[in-house]
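Let's sit down with a protein and look at its sequence and fold side by side. Please make up or recall a protein chain and show it to me in full. Label the sequence line and the structure token line clearly, so we can match residues to local backbone shapes. Go ahead whenever you are ready, and we will take it from there.
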Amino acid sequence: MGMEVISEGPAASPAPDATISDSEAIYNATFMIREALILATQGDKTPYNQVIEEITTYDPSDPVQESMLAMTLRALSGAISSIDYNYHKSLLCFIFDMSMWNCGPDVADAWVQFIVDLAASNSGFVDECLIKLVGNFLPPTSLSLTSMSLDSFTTRLVINGLDRNQLMEKTAEYLSRKEVILPRVHMALESIIHLVPKAPLKLGALVVHGMPKKHEPKNFNVLYLENMLRLERGIIGEYLRNDILRAVVCRLVDLDVDIKWEDILKEDCSKCIFDMELEDGEENETESQKGGAEVWKTNLGRERLGEVADKLDVLMDATFEHVKLSYEEGRLSQIFDVLMESFRLYVLNTSRSKFAQFVMFYACSLDPEKCGERFGIELLNIFLSSFEPRITRMSAIAYLASYLSRARFLPSYFVARTLDRVGRWCLEYYESCQKKSVDPEAHQVFYSGCQAVIYVLCFRMRSLMEVPQLKALLFQMPLDVILNNTLEPLSVCLPSIVEEFLKQADGARLFKSKGTLPEGLLDSLNSKAYGGIERLDMFFPFDPYLLKKSDRFISPHFTFWSMVEAKYEEDDDSDISDVDTNDGDEGDFYAGNGELGQSLTEVDIHEFESSMNMMSITPKDSMKSRFAGSPTLPEFGRLIKMPAKLRPSTSPDW
């Protein structure tokens, strides 16, 4: 197909009315532009200035100017060896200032080709070419309204009177074209990476540095994040995976800690933690009995989270989608190592993080056998390590307890083994400690371990009891020595957890506290000393997920309190107290280095895991008739209700 060359400038053909082929037109234009570039270096800038004048008046809405600019850019690619920054600065500045979002497809293709050719031909331009390509991750309306930060076309519009509101109206138009623009940007980056070996070393830092500020609009933050994850998923991911995923997790944490919880936390602090999870226990019971995963909603809490949470919600959704795609493409193992490292660096010891950690939770849910158990073992080893700081060990065991309790995908044998190992550490600590008296500050790590054990049992006791081998293991755990000793962990741990544990353990005949617990456990001075007067001991990192859009990835894998059948009937067919505790292996379930071993009475794991898959954990009748008069729990009448309404817990500011 031919084109009529109508310009009389340097890029025009000698015969204005002649129709020539595209290749001939570009050849002629290349010859003329090369001459103009050479003459400029010799002092004659007339032809060069004529080229500048033609391209700087470019109007994207004019098809003729669109064709001419595309041809000029292709001609410049052919004359790339004649470009010298010292003499052709104004030409390069105009081209670098162009935004692909304001260009038609032909100009966009020609611009990309010029940028790639320039980077490949002269290493001095690599940084600038990469910067301009990364800058096209976002449309020009994402920038502040100053002529120095906008592309040349948008700058002219602003100078001619376009105000901020009118410019922002173009955002929707730009975003509708992202699938036209962004594939070209990423193709150009991949080409430069292929042609310039050192480019990956520079690109990672440029991508991270170019991230929008967290306070900038949601649509720009999510668009940039999608570009980063697209890089990680492509061939460039081999070079930039660590930088990109770390930056993504860091951004999620930054937004997470900015969410204001004050309004949500104005509820009655004296409520049992299990009474705060569901708005209506009976209503949620009905949902569970319908067969679907329970959809937990706390609309009031979500509404109070505000704009920051809304932005985080969209970013979390995009991140979850990326993790899902990585799994489907067989790449989950490639990103999991980086996610684990990022968790250690940015999440584990971050106070008040409520959502960012669910990236790990979701990744683990996709591959429970490898990723899921590995995450749990990592948390366990951190807790067991005497070389880790106290704050890190306490954070790790809090995460582990919440993870074992809430991760529906974890096999019961793994939960049981992990509980056994934590329990044995608590026993070893008590037997070896010098000061065997209550001291919430001196024994914080010990109390954290004890609280983890009883918290997990509140959620998992019933399911573990239904597997004979695991039931035997529970009865072999030295709970009596761990919890009934002079360090008095039951008077220090969070009272609501202690009360719920004792309620269930008494029904299961698993454990009984020696003596009567004092009235008003929620006001326990020891517990306040352990957690702080502001109840900062209420740190359960995998509490129900409040973000509405991205919750679709979490709910199917999450154990809600209403799903836990923590009730034991007196007329059970088999008396739990008569369990033969010698059926299980009394040896440690871990190797000497703290990693999971392979004992458990040599039972075939798959055999009793299949029984778990068939088990129903839908809530049934209340325990009120059985425990209302319990002398062990004087305040039980207030506590036996099914949980009602979550108050998001806060992490400790240790």
Summary: The chain has a mean pLDDT of 78.
